[in-house]
Design a protein that fits this description.
seven-stranded mixed sheet
């Protein structure tokens, strides 16, 4: 399945907070929790608080019999180890083969460090989602960090932010902490969140992981500084007037969607349609009608069109929005430059 959540007995190993603007994941799987939860509650609800052990690897034949050396000792694969999950019923689940430098970090450990990084305690209700992927080989969680509030004269334009945590017991997926506005609810959203993130801290499952994870605090500090700078810029944009029918709005739209050198009638009609659509978006209750006719609303009208109204599929649109070199991203940067000039 696309979500890659582990399913046991027909139930997905995931838990998610509901209430307010938090809704059930697109896959409708897992355990719904009333509001943000503590780490303990979410790990238990998602059945994600299991232990993983590291073992040596022995050679066996096709029938599962141990292969032995001439002296009778078991033939061991010296440059490999295996990660195995200990289940509550006493059984074991094989996860992956890994290198000899690999160190196990339990899901609980990875999440405890995430809370320490953001200054939360184990008893704080800040957990939004927790889940297990790929039959236990990977783990993810979303920590609610609150939001940036842009509030000149009571506008209250909230930008949600999370710390997405992910880790793997497969020797491939490292420990990652990422600041992102994408809520992790499945494998694809974890990947999208990492790609979109303003800052990502990565720690390998090796013996020096404890010391390097401390460095993640510096990454979060950088991201927090970015948040303050973003809020200041948004407030500045809110103070720049852009009348609905004025030249300023025309200059932004024409710069981002200019007339072609040798424009056909069809191209002209298409361009006129785009211009009309952006003006309509600019005046709706998500932009000008709510936040006033200013640079902030004008910029967001262009971004909204680029992200949601172009004639492309949702996946292509998401990829274009996350690619720093894409035409879509360059158009957004151009819109910002023109609208604040």
């Amino acid at each position: 399945m696309a979500h890659e959540l582990e399913i046991v007995g027909g139930k997905a190993k995931m838990a998610y907070a509901t209430g307010g603007d938090r809704k059930a994941p697109w896959h409708r799987l897992g355990t719904a929790m009333a509001g943000l939860q503590t780490m303990e509650a979410m790990l238990q609800a998602a059945n994600a608080d299991f232990d993983v052990v590291l073992t040596r690897v022995a050679a066996v034949d096709d029938d599962g019999n141990l292969i032995r050396n001439a002296d009778g000792t078991v033939l061991m694969i010296e440059d490999s180890r295996a990660t195995i999950r200990q289940n509550l019923d006493g059984s074991f689940t094989p996860l992956a083969t890994v290198g000899t430098r690999y160190e196990v970090r339990q899901n609980r450990e990875v999440l405890e460090r995430a809370l320490a990084i953001v200054g939360a305690s184990k008893g704080d209700a800040v957990m939004d989602t927790v889940g297990v992927l790929k039959n236990g080989a990977r783990f993810f969680a979303t920590v609610e960090l609150g939001g940036i509030v842009v509030d000149p004269a009571g506008v209250n334009d909230r930008i949600a932010r999370y710390l997405v945590v992910s880790s793997g017991h497969d020797g491939v997926w490292p420990i990652r902490y990422a600041n992102t506005d994408i809520r992790a609810v499945c494998s694809n959203t974890v990947i999208l969140g990492l790609r979109q993130a303003e800052r990502v801290f990565i720690a390998r499952h090796t013996r020096n992981v404890d010391s390097t994870i401390e460095d993640a605090k510096n990454v979060l500090k950088i991201s927090s500084t970015w948040g303050v700078e973003f809020a200041a810029e948004a407030e500045r944009m809110l103070s720049i007037p852009v009348p609905m029918g004025g030249k300023k709005l025309d200059s932004v739209i024409n710069a981002v969607f200019p007339k072609a050198a040798e424009e056909t009638d069809r191209q002209r009609k298409t361009r006129d349609g785009v211009h009309e659509m952006i003006r309509s978006i600019y005046s709706n209750n998500r932009n000008g009608a709510k936040f006033g006719f200013n640079a902030w609303s004008a910029y967001n009208a262009v971004v909204e069109y680029l992200d949601f109204y172009r004639s492309v599929d949702a996946t292509s649109s998401a990829i274009a929005s996350m690619d720093d070199t894409s035409t879509v991203t360059q158009k957004k940067l151009l819109a910002h430059r023109v609208v604040v000039s």
